[in-house]
Automatic annotation (TrEMBL), chain A:
Its main location: membrane. It is found in: Cell membrane; Membrane, Coated pit. One of its GO terms (molecular function) is clathrin adaptor activity. One of its GO terms (biological process) is intracellular protein transport. Belongs to the adaptor complexes large subunit family. PANTHER family: ADAPTIN, ALPHA/GAMMA/EPSILON. Residues 634-660 have a biased composition (Polar residues). A 1,2-diacyl-sn-glycero-3-phospho-(1D-myo-inositol-3,4,5-trisphosphate) binds at R11, G12, K43, Y53, K57, Y58, V59, C60, K61. Residues 616-660 are annotated as: Disordered. The keyword Cell membrane applies. This is AP-2 complex subunit alpha.
UniProtKB/TrEMBL annotation, chain B:
Residues 1-136 form the AP complex mu/sigma subunit domain. This is AP complex subunit sigma. GO terms for biological process: intracellular protein transport. Pfam families: Clat_adaptor_s. Belongs to the adaptor complexes small subunit family. It comes from Amphilophus citrinellus (Midas cichlid). GO terms for cellular component: AP-1 adaptor complex; clathrin-coated pit. InterPro entries: AP1_sigma, AP_complex_ssu, AP_mu_sigma_su, Clathrin_sm-chain_CS, Longin-like_dom_sf.
Length: 921, 152
């Protein structure tokens, strides 16, 4: 056994760890662990008091077991005990255990908070640091509530040690990230800014992190930090590297601090003060100059630190986007890195240049590197570098180089890594559309995409090409000819069949004059693919066939034969069968005129943002894409044209949904171009608010409030005086993702902002926190609106949240005498509400007691002379007032009835409480 | 910073530090994703990866992979040096640190990390100061193993 345990080595721990390592199988490991757990449990439970060392050792063992991935359900108390030890090493293990195994057990949190409080006031810097670390590591709301106002004081107090200041700054930063509402701004903020002048560089570094985060939310409060940051930065970049002693890292002066200062400056626009501005420009120039100097060390750490500062300076230059000379210098510097032998630098240069490409000052300079970037696409061995190259090509693309870049991307697509194919497909589709001068090129490009990477061409892409072809009559003939030719290939992708079927169904007549593509040839070509396709595609083809009947009366009989065949009319798939039956019938009974009207060419689509672009944005996350807004305009050409389309569209939306779906329900998976009618054009119909489970929450706070086949919504809530917090758990019951998930609650609820994750994985759960404040007494409960996409359809759910007036009760204990005195005081007729009602549930005393307690009042024993009756008292807290409330419930077992009497100082409150409570029995 | 993971070439997790609160389920998924992703990388690839909206910075030291996740606006090169500085601190404490040191003294590895990083930000970049505060809390060191670490 290697006795590697060091320092205050715990031999027992080392033995245990090496036992575990010697276990030959998972079973043996579990067995050994269980043995150890039993041992520790008996030690903790034993009569003999354990000394600090043993306690520390066992807690440490538990921690080890937990980190191996096993559950630990005891030992928390012993860890908490260690917190109050005077021995540093014992305290340290205690804190480590707490930080790693946070438990929301509320009793424990109180004890932990007490120990932290003691250490914070101990004036022992090492203890204070441990406590601050624990707060930062746990970062829970309870801790924030307890300490968020204390820490700023420690941070700016004159006699605080430097190391404690550092911890306090970062601890505050963490709390501000998790519970920004609890960190109060105030007089201390001004003093924090002045920490930028501190002598101790460690303090400055920590303070800069804090200020940067705070400044992003309250830029005005921290404006003065700009000049201090510039001054500090200037002193660092001009210092001889030895000046900063240990803050020099491999001959680079304070790289971490420099980067943080540069990041802080990115929270603000360029300084307006000319002197300050030129001082900053000087700093940035110095950094750029240093990049050209020969390295002071061959170590990679030296070049990494130096270049880290350089990249951050470039990021600031790009952020300011105001100094053309600096921008061009930055671009040239990055250009050098593009061919550097370090893969890391090539990667970063590509990434950084992406943002430079969007600046008007440097766009042209970036374009000069196009050949290098294309070369990178072909020669880089690392897929993540190639991905950056694709991003950069996309960013530098404009009308002048679009054809070349699109061609390069297409050829790269043939060999590209599977993981990035879909993204490249989207990018090509967007660029082809955005920079298409002639739309024949666009159509060719998309068909090529389908040919090369059909599996990665999503619906959005082929919907889009159809929209564009329909909206532009100059390209329709070409599109028909091209898809016809493409379909000749013996094996073509199903996506091509879809596009082909749709386009020939609309515009097949434009090429029917040529005998090589006569109506019958077209039909036979499409129908030869029919049996190889999936149901949705077959459904689309059937629609194309009925369109053919309208376009080409000469093939009507042939198509009717096809529709009439058993494989269609008796198809097992209901959608296909329905289409076949209806289309056949339509073709038989409708006159030519009616057919021509029903099956008219599709009207132009309304102008809208490319759904492909939306998809790419979603893939990449916001802010990752250069602004591509103008892509919209290039789709439909001139604005008059689009006005036209708008008018034609009014009222016609319905006619073409019908053509596509012919009486089938719109939710059937086969509906085409349903995309067009999504969110923006079809507002969701008013939905019923679910309140089925609402009454169950009157007397309790946790449970399932809503459930259907897809989604389960669970609640956990807690209330204190007029405030409440509700944890909403959204569980995805399916195996598919929910996309674009959003929930909006009424404005009177304060929704915790961190919860807005737009996607829930299949089988996963997402949590959202709602903060609730009761401003005045109220009746109506707030409604939570939920929206998400499941499969292709938008789901809307509205749930009435169980926030009722009685949730803001604080129970009040009182003696019999007090009770009756107050009861009399509330004697006015409107203050009392009484209700006599029949019992809905079995009349069980214990259940009734639990319900009254759950309702929020104190249950008063020995007040009512009749022991069968229940008497309660409580105070409702709202922001503005408090309303005292007394209640009495008299059960009548024989009649299976209750009489409930409520007296409060306010009639509306009495009324509401009576309604709520009487419903529960 | 969001999290730091240390794992072996066999994918065994040796240290996990989370700078934001996350459910155990999420943690397990991330650990799985990171180990498979990083271990699948070829030698001499770049040290950076894009993963969801985060940047993953990883580096191998001898038998251990250090894997750090940072927000998208963070500086990758400096993140790489955060890893290196942590390795230096471990090295200084254990003297030629090796994977076994971290297994057997996992609590020390956490303590050293806590002196260096806090709440996902760098707390003290000076090696001397960090070491001083670690040593101050420790009984004099003894025992050292002859495993060497390759600091390349």
């Amino acid at each position: 056994m290697p006795a590697v345990s060091k320092g205050d080595g715990m031999r027992g721990l080392a033995v245990f760890i090496s036992d575990i390592r010697n276990c030959k199988s998972k079973e043996a490991e579990v067995k050994r662990i269980n043995k150890e757990l039993a041992n520790i449990r008996s030690k903790f439970k034993g009569d003999k008091a354990l000394d600090g060392y043993s306690k520390k050792k066992y807690v440490c063992k538990l921690l080890f077991i937990f980190l191996l991935g096993h559950d630990i359900d005891f030992g928390h108390m012993e860890a908490v005990n260690l917190l109050s030890s005077n021995k540093y090493t014992e305290k340290q293990i205690g804190y480590l255990f707490i930080s790693v195994l946070v438990n929301s057990n509320s009793d424990l949190i109180r004890l932990i908070n007490n120990a932290i409080k003691n250490d914070l006031t101990s004036r022992n810097p090492t203890f204070m640091n441990l406590a601050l670390h624990c707060i930062a590591n746990v970062g829970s709301r309870e801790m924030a509530e307890a300490f968020a106002s204390e820490i700023p004081r420690i941070l700016v107090a004159g006699d605080t040690m430097d190391s404690v200041k550092q911890s306090a700054a970062l601890c505050l930063l963490r709390l501000n990230r998790t519970s920004p509402d609890l960190v109060p701004m105030g007089e201390w903020t001004a003093r924090v800014v002045h920490l930028l002048n501190d002598q101790h560089l460690g303090v400055v570094t920590a303070a800069t992190s804090l200020i940067t985060t705070l400044a992003q939310k309250n830029p005005d409060d921290f404006k003065t930090s700009v000049s201090l940051a510039v001054a500090r930065l200037s002193r660092i970049v001009t210092s001889a590297s030895i000046d900063l002693q240990d803050y020099t890292y491999y001959f680079v002066a304070a790289p971490w601090l420099s980067v943080k200062l540069l990041r802080l400056l990115q929270s603000y626009p360029p300084p307006e003060d000319a002197a300050l501005r030129s001082r900053l420009t000087e700093c940035l120039e110095t950094i750029l100059n240093k990049a050209q100097e020969p390295p002071k060390s061959k170590k990679v750490q030296h070049s990494n630190a130096k270049n880290a500062v350089l990249f951050e300076a470039i990021a600031l230059i790009i952020h300011h986007d105001s100094e053309p000379t600096l921008l061009v210098r930055a671009c040239n510097q990055l250009g050098q890195f593009l061919q550097h032998r370090e893969t890391n630098l090539r990667y970063l240069a590509l990434e950084s240049m992406c943002t430079l490409a969007s600046s008007e000052f440097s766009h042209e300079a970036v374009k000069t590197h196009m050949e290098t970037v294309i070369n990178a696409l072909k020669t880089e061995r690392d897929v993540s570098v190639r991905q950056r190259a694709v991003d950069l090509l996309y960013a530098m693309c404009d009308r002048s180089n679009a054809k070349q870049i699109v061609a390069e991307m297409l050829s790269y697509l043939e060999t590209a890594d599977y993981s990035i194919r879909e993204e490249i497909v989207l990018k090509v589709a967007i660029l082809a559309e955005k920079y298409a001068v002639d739309y024949t090129w666009y159509v060719d490009t998309i068909l090529n995409l389908i040919r090369i990477a059909g599996d990665y061409v999503s619906e959005e892409v082929w919907y889009r090409v159809i929209q564009i072809v329909i909206n532009r009559d100059d390209v329709q003939g070409y599109a028909a000819k091209t898809v016809f030719e493409a379909l000749q290939a013996p094996a073509c992708h199903e996506n091509l069949v879809k596009v082909g079927g749709y386009i020939l169904g609309e515009f097949g007549n434009l090429i029917a004059g040529d005998s090589r593509s006569s109506p019958l040839v077209q039909f036979n070509l499409l129908h030869s693919k029919f049996h190889l396709c999936s149901v949705p595609t077959r459904a689309l083809l059937l629609s194309a066939y009925i369109k053919f009947i309208n376009l080409f009366p000469e093939v009507k009989a042939t198509i009717q034969d096809v529709l009439r065949s058993d494989s269609q009319l008796r198809n097992a798939d209901v959608e296909l069968q329905q289409r076949a039956v209806e289309y056949l019938r339509l073709s038989c009974i409708a006159s030519t005129d009616i057919l021509a009207t029903v099956l008219e060419e599709m009207p132009p689509f309304p102008e809208r943002e490319s759904s492909i672009l939306a998809k790419l944005k979603k893939k990449k996350g916001p802010g990752k894409l250069p602004d591509m807004d103008d892509s919209r305009r290039s789709v439909n050409g001139s604005t008059e044209h689009s006005e036209n389309t708008d008018t034609t569209n009014k009222g016609s939306t319905h006619s073409f949904t019908d053509v596509l779906n012919l009486n089938s329900t719109p939710s059937s998976g086969a509906s085409l171009l349903i995309d067009v009618f999504s969110e923006s054009s079809a507002p969701p119909a008013a939905i019923d608010v679910s309140e089925e489970n609402f009454p169950r929450f009157v007397c309790k706070n946790n449970g399932v409030i809503y459930e259907n086949q897809l989604l389960q919504i669970g609640l956990k809530s807690e209330y204190r005086q007029n405030l409440g917090r509700m944890y909403v758990f959204y569980g995805n019951k399916t195996s598919t993702q929910f996309l674009s998930f959003s929930s909006s609650s009424p404005p009177q609820l304060n929704v915790h902002p961190k919860a807005a994750d737009p996607m829930i994985e299949g089988g996963a759960q997402m949590q959202q926190i709602l903060n609730i404040e009761c401003v005045s007494d109220f009746r109506d409960a707030p409604v939570l609106n939920i929206q998400f996409r499941y499969g292709g359809t938008l789901q809307n759910i509205a749930v009435k949240l169980p926030v009722m007036l009685n949730k803001f009760f604080q129970p009040t204990e009182m003696m019999s005498q007090d009770f009756f005195q107050r009861w009399k005081q509330l004697g006015a007729p409107q203050q009392e509400v009484q209700k006599i009602f029949k019992a809905k549930h079995p009349m069980d005393t214990e259940v009734t007691k639990a319900k009254i307690l759950g309702f929020g009042v104190a249950l008063l024993d020995g007040v009512d002379p009749n022991p069968a009756n229940f008497v309660g008292a409580g105070v409702i807290h709202t922001k503005t007032t408090q309303v005292g409330c007394l209640l009495r419930l008299e059960p009548n077992m024989q009649a299976q009835m209750y009489r409930l009497t409520l007296r409060t100082s306010r009639d509306s409150v009495s009324q509401r409480l009576c309604e709520l409570l009487s419903d529960q029995f | 910073m969001r999290f730091l993971l240390l794992f072996s070439r066999q994918g065994k997790l040796r240290l996990q530090k989370w700078f934001t609160s996350m459910s155990d389920r999420e943690k397990k998924k991330i650990i799985r994703d990171m180990t498979t992703m990083v271990l699948a990388r070829q030698a001499r690839s770049c040290n950076f990866l894009q993963w969801k909206d985060l940047k993953i910075i990883y580096k191998r030291y001898a038998s251990l992979y250090f894997c750090l996740a940072v927000e998208s606006q963070e500086n990758e090169l400096l993140a790489l040096e955060i890893i290196h500085r942590y390795v230096e601190l471990l090295d200084k404490y254990f003297g030629n640190v090796c994977e076994l040191d971290i297994i057997f003294n996992f609590e020390k590895a956490y303590f050293i990390l806590d002196e260096f990083l806090m709440g996902g930000e760098i707390q003290e970049t000076s090696k001397q100061i960090v070491n001083r505060s670690i040593e101050a809390s420790d009984i004099p060191r003894y025992l050292k193993l002859a495993f060497t670490i390759n600091n390349c």
